[in-house]
Design goal:
single chain; about 325 residues; mainly alpha; 12 helices; globular; disordered N terminus
C-alpha cells in the first residue's frame, strides 16, 4: 500500500470512528431538534429539555435514540467522505498548504459539502421519519397530507401501532418513488450542507492553526477539539433556516393541520407567512449543541491519528 493510500485509509478510519462516537453522544439532542423544527407552533414541546423529558416518559430512554441505527450505519461513510473530500480538495487547490488562502479553503469546503450529500440526504430522510414518529403518536394526524407511500408505517399511537423501521421506509420509498424517494429534499440538503462546509472548514482551519506547535507541526487534541466545537457552532447556527426547510420537506407524515410543501421556495414562503421569521430558527440551540461536540470529536480524533494507529497495529 502506498503512503498516499495509507493516508487516505487512515483519514477514512478517523472520520468513521469520530462519527460513531459523536452520534452516540449527541443523538437525543438531534431528535429534540427534529421534533421542535417539525411542530407548528408551541403546542407540544416548549423547548429542548421539555421535549427530551416528554420523550423519555412516553417512549422510554431508548425512545430518545429513535433513528440512531440509521445514523450509526451511515455516519461512517458520511463523515469519512466529508473529511477526506475536504482534505483532497485542499491538497488539489492549495499549492502551499502552510499559507492560508481563504478563497481556496472555502472552495474546498464547497467541494466537501457537495460530495457528502450522496450519503447525507438518504440518511437524514430515513432518520427524520423515525425521529418524528413519537411526536406524531401524540398529535392528531391528517389523512390528506401524508403521501400514499408512507401510509403503512403511519404512527397513530405508540401503544397500538408497530414502530416503523428504516428498512420498511426505505423499501416502500424505493418501490413507490424509486431512488428519488430517498433523495427527497436533495436541493434543500445541498443548500444547507454547502454553505455549512464553506463556513466550517476555513474557520476550523484558521482556528486550529493558532494552536499548531512548532515542535510537532500539529495542534493538540484539546485545541483541535475546541476549534471544531467553535467552528461547528458558528456554522450550524448560520445555516439553521436551511436545516428547518430541509426537515419540513423531508418529513413524510404530517399532523392534522400541518402544511405539505411543493419545494424549498414553497416551504420558505409558507413558513414565513404562517409562522413568522422566528420559525426559521427553530432548533438553532439544539443544532449548535449537536454539531459542536460532533465536529469537535471528529476533528480531535482526526488530528489525534486514531486511523494511523489502527493501521500500524494491523501491519
Amino acid at each position: 500500500m502506498s503512503s498516499q493510500d495509507l493516508s487516505l485509509t487512515a483519514k477514512l478510519i478517523n472520520g468513521g470512528v469520530a462519527g460513531l462516537v459523536g452520534v452516540t453522544c449527541v443523538f437525543p439532542i438531534d431528535l429534540a431538534k427534529t421534533r421542535l423544527q417539525n411542530q407548528h407552533g408551541r403546542d407540544m414541546y416548549k423547548g429542548m429539555m421539555d421535549c427530551l423529558v416528554k420523550t423519555a416518559r412516553a417512549e422510554g430512554f431508548f425512545g430518545m435514540y429513535r433513528g440512531a441505527a440509521v445514523n450509526l450505519t451511515l455516519v461512517t461513510p458520511e463523515k469519512a467522505i466529508k473529511l477526506a473530500a475536504n482534505d483532497f480538495f485542499r491538497q488539489l487547490l492549495m499549492e502551499d498548504r502552510m499559507q492560508r488562502n481563504l478563497k481556496m479553503e472555502m472552495l474546498a469546503g464547497c467541494g466537501a459539502g457537495m460530495c457528502q450529500v450522496v450519503v447525507t440526504c438518504p440518511m437524514e430522510m430515513l432518520k427524520i421519519q423515525l425521529q418524528d414518529a413519537g411526536r406524531l403518536a401524540g398529535h392528531p394526524q391528517g389523512s390528506a397530507s401524508a403521501p400514499p407511500s408512507s401510509m403503512s408505517y403511519a404512527m397513530g399511537s405508540a401503544s397500538t401501532h408497530k414502530r416503523p423501521s428504516a428498512t420498511l421506509i426505505a423499501w416502500e420509498l424505493l418501490c413507490t418513488q424509486g431512488l428519488a424517494g430517498l433523495y427527497r429534499g436533495l436541493g434543500a440538503t445541498l443548500l444547507r450542507d454547502i454553505p455549512f462546509s464553506i463556513i466550517y472548514f476555513p474557520l476550523f482551519a484558521n482556528l486550529n492553526n493558532l494552536g499548531v506547535s512548532e515542535r510537532t507541526g500539529k495542534a493538540s487534541f484539546a485545541h483541535s477539539f475546541v476549534s471544531g466545537c467553535a467552528a461547528g457552532s458558528v456554522a450550524a447556527v448560520a445555516v439553521t433556516p436551511l436545516d428547518v426547510l430541509k426537515t419540513r420537506i423531508q418529513t413524510l407524515q404530517k399532523g392534522l393541520g400541518e402544511d405539505s410543501y411543493g419545494g424549498t421556495v414553497d416551504c420558505a414562503r409558507k413558513l414565513w407567512t404562517r409562522e413568522g421569521p422566528a420559525a426559521l430558527m427553530k432548533g438553532a440551540g439544539c443544532r449548535a449543541l449537536v454539531i459542536a461536540p460532533l465536529f469537535g470529536i471528529a476533528q480531535g480524533v482526526y488530528f489525534f491519528g486514531i486511523g494511523e494507529r489502527v493501521l500500524q497495529w494491523l501491519e
